[in-house]
Amino acid sequence: MILFRTLKVLRIPLLFVLLLTIILSGCTSNLSNKTKEDKILTVSWPKDIGPLNPHQYTPNEFFAQGTYYEPLIDYGPNGKLIPKLAESWNVSEDGKVYTFHLRKNVKFTDGSNFDASVVQKNFQTILANRDLHSWLGLISEINKTEVVDAHTFKVTLKNRYYPALQEFAVVRPLRFLGSAGFSDDGNTAKGIKKPITTGPWVLSEYKKNEKAVFTRNENYWGTKPKIKKLIVKVIPDGEARVLALQKGDIDLIFGEGVISLDSFVALKDSGKFKTAVSDPLASRALIVNTSKGPFADLDVRIALQHAVNKKALVDGVTNGIEKQADSIISKNFPYANVNLKPYDYNLEKAKALLDKAGWKLPAGKTIREKNGKPLEIELVYMGSDQIEKPMSAAIQSDLKQIGVSLKTTGLEREIRNKRMETADFDLLFWNSYGAPYDPHSFISTNFAPGYGIFESQQGIPMKNELHQQMKDVLLTDNETDRQKLYTSIFTTLHNQASYLPISYLTNIAVYPDYVKGWGFPAHRDETPFAIIDVQK
């Protein structure tokens, strides 16, 4: 009887628990299915995405424009050019006329057709603002554009310019806005009405300085993204971004310099996240002023190459995330796979070269002298840069070991740029442009006065021949000749020690295990969101 009563008393609670378990099980299943169906990826960025104007610069963010809008041609691994909105193209024999055969059945997100007339409309507003876009060599070379038919568009240049196809792949300004997105006067330099794209995403929600929500474009002409929604949260502080990832508020940290490299290593070592580092995107180097001061002497320049412990710099300052650079442009860039013998870290070689150059170390002193003058040089760096500052201090310590006094000067960007433009430095920290701009953009700034690099190379004995080769390489249409010219240029710059390559800049990524299909784009300013999957 006691057992029966006990069972009777427990009967109702047991039934309730059973029913509750079934209900919760169903809810859990539904929640799980909902997560899988939604396929939401949440990422962070230090700044607001901006108005998504494809033809403007600040406050538009590169990554957002690269995610949202599409080019005629895309930039792939090792500089391979890939069809995008143009499925093919032809270049005339004289290298001046580019004919693009546009994809058919491509629509903008408002349902309008992508065709040659809208391509022309975009080019017209870009060319109407040439001064705004003059940094891109292609813009100044365009003579005229022409609509041949609905799916054929022609661009005629003033001169042969071999990097043209590569520059058609840049993120801005050569990407395409739907007609209804233009302002009434057609000038996008003044702004746009709304961001209408052919791309894989539609901007579905936007709160300035807070977040932007992109929904998958179900009518996209190409391969649709695996995720259905991309949420970009604005988190200005790097450490706050790390905490957001650890709490599960975001699913991915991605980019160049978006968190400290110490934090990256800590997240990697925690074992809770997957991490990845891209191939080299650009070069971090010192420009060596050959035109005046101690570095006008080649022996002193080569002594510098042997004196700086680059491995210690990248291991100590970047925690080994950036890789040591032995050439000014990484070998994974077009035409840059040139066999150059690296300068090894060798203090004795450095000291012997300084002795040869007449810079002797007097007894009882720590700084070398020549004709009674101490060997003192200055290194200019960007004062706010958290990598350049400690690297400058480390280089100062390296040079002290060979009897060189190095003054390090951190400056604001504007003042630093003026010092660079007037070649008012001995050494100056500098980054190359990266993919898809290099190596041709690197070359063009070397022979063009006004950037400071040309001015700093005036101490190179064969400078005239070197700068002529730099002009010729941009005009030649013969691949063999082009490679020979690049090889000669890179060899001369290396042998003349006019740059001190230090490391290669990279993108980093940190993400939980449920983020799948990770891969870095070859283009420095593109994003991988279209290929990522979320499998929670």
What can you see in these coordinates?
Helix 11 links the parallel strand 17 and strand 18. The strands form 7 sheets. This protein has a 6-stranded mixed beta sheet with strand order 14-20-13-19-17-18. A 4-stranded mixed beta sheet has the order 1-10-9-8, with no helix packed on it. It folds into 3 domains: 131 residues, D-Maltodextrin-Binding Protein, domain 2 (3-Layer(aba) Sandwich); 121 residues, Periplasmic binding protein-like II (D-Maltodextrin-Binding Protein, domain 2); 224 residues, Dipeptide-binding Protein, domain 3 (Roll), CATH 3.10.105.10. It is an alpha+beta fold and 536 residues long. The two termini are 51 Å apart. The N terminus is likely disordered. It is 33% helix and 21% strand.
DSSP strand tally: 23
Overall shape: globular
Poorly predicted runs: 1-35
Counted by DSSP, the helix tally is 16
N- to C-terminal distance: 51 Å
Query: What is the CATH topology descriptor of the largest domain?
Result: Dipeptide-binding Protein, domain 3
